Amino acid sequence: MCGTCGCGEENKITYRKAGANQNSIVGHTHSHFHGDLEHIHDHDHTHEHDHVHDHTHASSDQSVIIPLERNILHKNDLLAERNRGFFEGRNIKAYNLVSSPGSGKTSILERTIREKGGELNFYVIEGDQQTMNDANRIKAAGAPAVQINTGTGCHLDATMVYNAVKQLEIENGGTLFIENVGNLVCPSMFDLGESRRIVIISVTEGDDKPAKYPDMFQTSHLCIINKIDLLPYVDFSVEKVKETALRVNHHLEFIELSAKTGEGMDLWYQWLSEKN
Amino acid sequence: MHELSIAMSIAEIVEEESRLADSIKVEKITIEIGTQSGVMIEALQFAMEEVIMHSSFKDAVVSYEIITATASCEECCHEFDIQDFFMVCPVCNSSKTFLIRGKELKIKSIVIERNN
After folding, report:
1. Which of A15, A19, A61, A144, by CA, is between 20 and 30 Å from A68?
2. Per-chain mean pLDDT for chain A
3. What is the pLDDT of residues A214-268, one digit of tens each?
């Protein structure tokens, strides 16, 4: 579909539950519009046609302005709201985790599942271009995980999350982590229906990330600064990151932690339990 | 990076809406785009040229209406135009500001030709 980055190449997107037969690709659905109504079909559906089409015959060819005022991301936004309604109705907290590749998203989740899996019911959707690696890591840590492989796509969208959620069978009151494709640009535009968006930055990255990629910080609720055990070895100013990010989004909250040593993880658990 | 998929969504909507309106030809597509919409306008223009060439409305003219992003200050209620998300109020110097305009990304209208 997208020749530049491959966004939306739906026929190449795969959804695989960790631990399931990895050669099987689960059935897919198609969404489309009837008038203003968008909905999704499996392959074996029927069509009703119980309405008439009125039309007029003008006397000659004519140019007409059709006001649309239609949001281009309307399709994604509608489905995101549908996901959000499902989560709210079942009292599920859904967190969209966004960051550059290698910031430690999966490591934070692994430790969280190991240490808090007894108290909270965790489920994970993993988004990567290729491989089952992350979903397998999550499953080994003790939570059900579905891996979405986007092929060449650079972000998750609401349709992908909708399809993945159907495989996860999330219980009421569960906590869902959606680990987005590692990318600080494109995922900022796509609402998945999450309750909160969490941006993660590690101290081995530049402390000017919020200045370089302001959209992601502007749309997030929480900023996790990971790998703080490495602070003595790198030129990274936590204060500078906070100051820059707050100029973009003064409602942003911060948690500093190390998923490796466990330092600061209690603050993250406290945040999770408060938001639950 | 994502502008081509945005352009393809635009084409999909135009195809659908023009069909519903019994169009025989799409003459013009007007797109409203905010300067903080997350879309690079030049990249979208480039992508639209490519997408239109492969659509059923090759001759359609695309017009872009740019909306300058505006922020409002929480402290003093001053409204001001912004170039980026570093929105410091020019009156009271507060950074407690919020965006009130500039995230738009929509198809405002299409002009079509109808059969007699």
Report:
1. A61
2. 86
3. 999 999 999 999 999 999 999 999 999 999 999 999 999 999 999 999 999 999 9
In CATH, what is the architecture of A90-275? 3-Layer(aba) Sandwich (3.40)
Contacts of A186 in chain B (CB under 8 A): 1-2
Distance CA B7, CA B46 (A): 9
The answer, for A250 touching chain B at a CB cutoff of 8 Å, is yes
Domain boundaries, chain A: 90-275
Instruction: Note whether B53 contacts A: Cβ–Cβ < 8 A.
Output: no
Tokens of A180: 């987005």
Q: Which domains does chain B have, with CATH numbers?
A: 3-69+101-114 (3.30.2320.50)
Residue A36 per-residue DSSP state = T
Q: Which two tokens stand for residue B94?
A: 């507060």
What angle (nearest 5°) sits at the alpha carbon of residue B31, between those of residues B102 and A32?
Answer: 105
Give residue A24's pLDDT band: very low, low, confident or very high (50, 70, 90): very low
pLDDT tens digits for range B9-27: 999 999 999 999 999 999 9
- What stretches of A61-188 show up as alpha helix (H) in DSSP? 74-89, 105-116, 133-141, 158-168
